[in-house]
Amino acid sequence: MKKIGVLTSGGDAPGMNAAIRAVVRKAIYHDLEVYGIKYGYQGLIDGNIEKMELGSVGDIIQRGGTKLYSARCEEFKTEAGQEKGIEQLKKHGIDGLVVIGGDGSFRGAKKLTEKGYPCIGVPGTIDNDIPGTDFTIGFDTALNTIIEAIDKIRDTATSHERTYVVEVMGRDAGDLALWAGLADGAETIMVPERNEDFDDVVQRLKRGHDRGKKHSIIIVAEGVGSGFDFGQRIKEATDLETRVTVLGHTQRGGSPTAADRVLASRLGAKAVDILLAGKAGRMVGIQNNELVDHDILEVLDQGHMLDMDMYKLSQELSI
Ligand code: F6P
């Protein structure tokens, strides 16, 4: 292997830059040439590819977003799109590819591998919804962004004795909601993996209010539904003054935390190591603080699991 490519695909995540840096520097350390593919698979189809040097990734470890830009590309899901991508890889003499992204990006990487182009996936998404790794790049930063926002909401919620519904991202996964709820002592955490009884939520809010609680925080994962709809239902059922905040894309931005920078550096470097070891169609991950790699499809087929012990704990602590 002489030349490798790297791209970021799907929703961006803080720490992707640190992962790109690790891939580029580790590859150059091993005397490989590295090519950056801009705008994910769309850029691959369009041939938006340029050589990267040590300096190309200077001063980016601390930056959110992705230097290589990102896109969600429908065309790459088709055979024709994949063939166009392969033509570009051949044209540039690229022998292997590191794909930093989530579930959809990994399926594309597997397709390329099946067509003869070795790819390695690096899990980068704020959702933390990739099986085979305890954490994905960006999750820790997004979590800290949520917590900072909720701490602020708490101040005003107490001053006005209000109930706040905070909608957080996560797509179909409840990890951001659960971890943020536990870290912030939320009264209720609504996750798509569990069917919380609405009457229980209402009773808990009423009990808290009768006990003299100054405010309540309810975190709703977007996979459960709209925070605004939920807030309206709460207001009607409790008569408590209720406000709704949707944190939206603020959760995807910002400087990555130390944990995300370190994780991204370790995973990016590991991806290059396993490409050089002749592996393909694998994703790298971290489990029990050990770097691991798994077959991409086998791992995705396992489906994501929420940590139910943690969910139970959050309930026990918010009585
Ligand atoms: O996968 C990351 C994520 O931010 C999800 O949490 C969210 O559902 C989705 O992307 C939003 O996508 P977009 O930025 O395309 O609206």
From TrEMBL:
<feature type="binding site">
    <location>
        <begin position="72"/>
        <end position="73"/>
    </location>
    <ligand>
        <name>ATP</name>
    </ligand>
</feature>
<keyword id="KW-0547">Nucleotide-binding</keyword>
<feature type="binding site">
    <location>
        <begin position="102"/>
        <end position="105"/>
    </location>
    <ligand>
        <name>ATP</name>
    </ligand>
</feature>
<feature type="binding site" description="in other chain">
    <location>
        <begin position="185"/>
        <end position="187"/>
    </location>
    <ligand>
        <name>ADP</name>
    </ligand>
</feature>
<comment type="similarity">
    <text>Belongs to the phosphofructokinase type A (PFKA) family. ATP-dependent PFK group I subfamily. Prokaryotic clade 'B1' sub-subfamily.</text>
</comment>
<dbReference type="InterPro" id="IPR012003">
    <property type="entry name" value="ATP_PFK_prok-type"/>
</dbReference>
<keyword id="KW-0808">Transferase</keyword>
<keyword id="KW-0418">Kinase</keyword>
<comment type="subunit">
    <text>Homotetramer.</text>
</comment>
<feature type="binding site">
    <location>
        <begin position="21"/>
        <end position="25"/>
    </location>
    <ligand>
        <name>ADP</name>
    </ligand>
</feature>
<keyword id="KW-0479">Metal-binding</keyword>
<feature type="binding site">
    <location>
        <position position="103"/>
    </location>
    <ligand>
        <name>Mg(2+)</name>
    </ligand>
</feature>
<feature type="binding site" description="in other chain">
    <location>
        <position position="154"/>
    </location>
    <ligand>
        <name>ADP</name>
    </ligand>
</feature>
<feature type="binding site" description="in other chain">
    <location>
        <begin position="249"/>
        <end position="252"/>
    </location>
    <ligand>
        <name>substrate</name>
    </ligand>
</feature>
<feature type="binding site" description="in other chain">
    <location>
        <position position="211"/>
    </location>
    <ligand>
        <name>ADP</name>
    </ligand>
</feature>
<protein>
    <recommendedName>
        <fullName>ATP-dependent 6-phosphofructokinase</fullName>
        <ecNumber>2.7.1.11</ecNumber>
    </recommendedName>
</protein>
<keyword id="KW-0963">Cytoplasm</keyword>
<keyword id="KW-0021">Allosteric enzyme</keyword>
<keyword id="KW-0067">ATP-binding</keyword>
<feature type="binding site">
    <location>
        <position position="243"/>
    </location>
    <ligand>
        <name>substrate</name>
    </ligand>
</feature>
<feature type="binding site">
    <location>
        <position position="11"/>
    </location>
    <ligand>
        <name>ATP</name>
    </ligand>
</feature>
<dbReference type="InterPro" id="IPR022953">
    <property type="entry name" value="ATP_PFK"/>
</dbReference>
<comment type="function">
    <text>Catalyzes the phosphorylation of D-fructose 6-phosphate to fructose 1,6-bisphosphate by ATP, the first committing step of glycolysis.</text>
</comment>
<keyword id="KW-0460">Magnesium</keyword>
<dbReference type="InterPro" id="IPR012828">
    <property type="entry name" value="PFKA_ATP_prok"/>
</dbReference>
<comment type="pathway">
    <text>Carbohydrate degradation; glycolysis; D-glyceraldehyde 3-phosphate and glycerone phosphate from D-glucose: step 3/4.</text>
</comment>
<keyword id="KW-0324">Glycolysis</keyword>
<dbReference type="Pfam" id="PF00365">
    <property type="entry name" value="PFK"/>
</dbReference>
<feature type="binding site" description="in other chain">
    <location>
        <begin position="213"/>
        <end position="215"/>
    </location>
    <ligand>
        <name>ADP</name>
    </ligand>
</feature>
<feature type="active site" description="Proton acceptor">
    <location>
        <position position="127"/>
    </location>
</feature>
<feature type="binding site" description="in other chain">
    <location>
        <position position="222"/>
    </location>
    <ligand>
        <name>substrate</name>
    </ligand>
</feature>
<feature type="binding site" description="in other chain">
    <location>
        <begin position="169"/>
        <end position="171"/>
    </location>
    <ligand>
        <name>substrate</name>
    </ligand>
</feature>
<feature type="binding site">
    <location>
        <position position="162"/>
    </location>
    <ligand>
        <name>substrate</name>
    </ligand>
</feature>
<dbReference type="InterPro" id="IPR015912">
    <property type="entry name" value="Phosphofructokinase_CS"/>
</dbReference>
<feature type="domain" description="Phosphofructokinase">
    <location>
        <begin position="3"/>
        <end position="275"/>
    </location>
</feature>
<dbReference type="InterPro" id="IPR000023">
    <property type="entry name" value="Phosphofructokinase_dom"/>
</dbReference>
<feature type="binding site" description="in other chain">
    <location>
        <begin position="125"/>
        <end position="127"/>
    </location>
    <ligand>
        <name>substrate</name>
    </ligand>
</feature>
<dbReference type="InterPro" id="IPR035966">
    <property type="entry name" value="PKF_sf"/>
</dbReference>
